[in-house]
C-alpha cells in the first residue's frame, strides 16, 4: 500500500495534514509549487504514453496535469472520503462544471442556496434549456413528482444559506436513487470536518474552497469530490472550460487545509457560545443555529453532522438590521465566510440582493436577518461586540 492510500485510512485531522503531500524531494514537508505550464519528455514514446493515458504524469497545467494540482486533489479527495477530486478556479466554476457535465435537462434545487447558485440555475442554465424546479428542503412529495417527470439531478446545500435549514441528505438520496437521479451536495457551510455527504448517500460533493478550506479570505477556488466514474467526465469539462486554478493557489490551499480541523473545531465552539448568548438577548427574535435545541433542524443536524459549524443567523425584532450591523466593530461587513476574521452580512444586501421581494419573502429572508461567519477571534470579545451593537437597535 502506498503512503497516500495509508493516509486516506487515518482520522480526518491526520488526513488534513498529510494526505496528498509530495514527499521525498529534499525532505520538504510541504509539496513544492510547480509553476510550469508545460512538462517536457525524453522522447515521443514517453510523451504519447501520458497523452494516451497509459501512464499518469505531468503534461499541461490547464489540463490539471501538474504535480502541485494533483497533490491538492489527493488531499481534497481524502477529506471527503472520496475516490477522486477536482479543483477549480472558484466554487461557481466547480458548480458550473457539475451542472453542465451531468447532462441533466431537468434539475431539482432543494431548499435555499447561495444566490449565485440560484442565478446560475434560474438564468444561465435555463437559457440552455435546462429547467430547474426550486422546492422547499422538506418537500419530498414534490421531489418524487419531479423525479417521476424526468429530473435527473438534485442539488442541495445543508445547512442552507442563510437560514441554516438542515436537509435530510439520506432521505433525499434514497428518493433520488430509486428514480435513477443523482444527488449533489454543496458542503461549503458544513466543511468535511463536520459532515460527510458521500457517506450519507450523495453522489458528488462541491465546495467553494474560497471559504473554510482556504480559511484566510485570500484564495478563490472550488472543488468537486466523488467516485472516479463521475469525476472523469468533469475533468474534460474543466479542461475545455479552462477553469483550473493556478499552481500557486493550489499550494496555498493545501497549506490552509493542514489547519482546517483546528480552525473548524474552534469556529464550532465559538459559534455555539455566541448562539447561546444571543438566544437570551431581548433584542433578538430568533437565533438560527443548528446547535441550539430550540432550532427546528436540531435533531436532524445531530444525526447527520459531527459539528454544527461557524455560521449563524440572527433575526432581530428591529425591521431594519443595518444600524446594528453598522455599529459592530470586530465583525467586518463583507459577503463571504469561513475566514479567520468574523464577517457579518445582511442577505438582503448581498447574497440574496438579486432576488425579487416576493422570492425573498417565499424563502423567509427579511431585512431583520443578519448572517455571521464566526472567525478565530476570542468568542467573548465577539459576544461583547454583539451586545454593544444590539444596544443601537433596542429591545423588543
Ligand atoms: N456555495 C456557497 C455555499 C457559497 O457561499 C458560495 C459563495 O459565497 C459559492 C458556492 C460560490 O463560491 P465562489 O465564490 O468560490 O465561486
Automatic annotation (TrEMBL):
InterPro entries the record matches: Cys/Met-Metab_PyrdxlP-dep_enz (IPR000277), Cys_met_metab_PP (IPR054542), PyrdxlP-dep_Trfase (IPR015424), PyrdxlP-dep_Trfase_major (IPR015421), PyrdxlP-dep_Trfase_small (IPR015422)
Q: Give one Pfam hit by family name.
A: Cys_Met_Meta_PP
Carrying N6-(pyridoxal phosphate)lysine, the residues are: 211
Q: Name one GO biological process term.
A: transsulfuration
A GO MF label: pyridoxal phosphate binding
Keywords attached to this entry: Aminotransferase, Pyridoxal phosphate, Transferase
The family classification in the record reads: Belongs to the trans-sulfuration enzymes family.
**UniProt name for this protein:** Aminotransferase class I/II-fold pyridoxal phosphate-dependent enzyme
Amino acid at each position: 500500500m502506498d503512503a497516500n492510500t495509508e493516509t486516506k485510512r487515518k482520522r480526518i485531522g491526520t488526513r488534513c495534514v498529510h494526505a496528498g503531500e509530495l514527499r521525498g524531494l529534499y525532505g520538504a514537508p510541504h509539496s513544492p509549487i510547480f509553476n510550469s505550464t508545460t512538462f517536457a519528455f525524453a522522447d515521443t514514446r514517453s510523451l504519447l504514453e501520458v497523452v494516451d493515458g497509459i501512464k499518469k504524469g505531468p503534461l499541461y497545467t490547464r489540463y490539471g496535469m501538474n504535480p502541485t494540482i494533483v497533490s491538492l486533489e489527493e488531499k481534497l479527495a481524502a477529506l471527503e472520503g472520496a475516490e477522486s477530486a477536482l479543483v477549480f478556479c472558484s466554487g461557481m466554476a466547480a458548480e458550473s462544471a457539475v451542472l453542465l457535465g451531468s447532462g441533466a435537462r431537468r434539475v431539482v434545487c432543494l431548499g435555499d442556496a447561495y444566490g449565485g447558485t440560484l442565478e446560475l440555475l434560474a438564468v444561465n442554465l435555463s437559457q440552455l434549456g435546462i429547467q430547474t424546479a426550486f422546492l422547499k428542503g422538506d418537500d419530498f412529495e414534490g421531489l418524487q413528482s419531479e423525479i417521476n417527470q424526468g429530473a435527473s439531478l438534485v442539488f442541495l446545500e445543508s445547512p442552507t444559506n442563510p437560514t441554516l435549514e438542515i436537509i435530510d441528505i439520506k432521505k433525499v438520496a434514497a428518493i433520488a436513487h430509486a428514480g435513477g437521479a443523482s444527488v449533489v451536495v454543496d458542503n461549503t457551510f458544513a466543511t468535511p470536518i463536520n459532515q460527510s455527504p458521500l457517506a450519507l448517500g450523495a453522489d458528488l460533493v462541491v465546495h467553494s474552497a474560497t471559504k473554510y478550506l482556504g480559511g484566510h479570505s485570500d484564495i478563490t477556488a472550488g472543488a468537486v469530490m466523488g467516485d472516479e466514474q463521475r469525476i472523469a467526465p468533469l475533468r474534460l469539462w474543466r479542461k475545455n472550460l479552462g477553469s483550473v486554478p493556478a499552481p500557486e493557489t493550489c499550494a496555498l490551499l493545501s497549506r490552509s487545509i493542514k489547519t482546517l480541523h483546528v480552525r473548524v473545531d474552534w469556529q464550532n465552539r465559538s459559534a455555539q457560545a455566541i448562539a447561546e448568548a444571543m438566544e437570551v438577548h431581548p433584542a433578538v427574535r430568533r437565533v438560527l443555529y443548528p446547535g441550539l435545541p430550540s432550532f427546528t433542524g436540531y435533531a436532524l443536524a445531530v444525526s447527520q453532522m459531527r459539528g454544527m459549524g461557524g455560521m449563524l443567523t440572527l433575526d432581530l425584532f428591529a425591521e431594519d438590521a443595518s444600524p446594528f450591523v453598522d455599529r459592530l466593530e470586530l465583525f467586518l461587513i463583507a459577503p463571504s465566510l469561513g475566514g479567520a476574521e468574523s464577517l457579518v452580512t445582511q442577505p438582503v444586501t448581498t447574497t440574496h440582493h438579486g432576488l425579487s421581494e416576493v422570492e425573498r419573502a417565499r424563502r423567509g429572508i427579511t431585512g431583520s436577518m443578519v448572517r455571521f461567519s464566526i472567525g478565530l477571534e476570542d468568542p467573548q470579545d465577539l459576544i461583547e461586540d454583539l451586545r454593544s451593537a444590539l444596544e443601537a437597535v433596542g429591545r423588543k
